[in-house]
Design brief:
Layout (H helix, E strand, L loop, with lengths): L10 H10 L3 E4 L2 H7 L14 H16 L4 E4 L5 H15 L1
Helix pairs in contact: 2-3
Length: 95
Amino acid sequence: MATGGGAACHEGNLRTMLDAGRVVALVITPEEAVRRARGGAGRPLLSGPDPVATATALLASRAPFYARAHFAVDTVGRPPQDVARDVLAWVETRS
């Protein structure tokens, strides 16, 4: 199951996810988050005057939650199929 980035930042949600299965954090830079969000258009949390600064603060506040994931994979500059391959390879080593 894929969740939004903030879903894991509520202790109850994160605990449920960690207890229910494998949690994978998809790592991104603030700049890449803004780029993927098309500069923050339609993304209320990134709609301010400096979306990169906002994304930087947001990712920093979420970092302690993301750090508790079972696995993290860097997604910046990588096609989705490469990221998926890394996740599947990790899952297979845990099966």
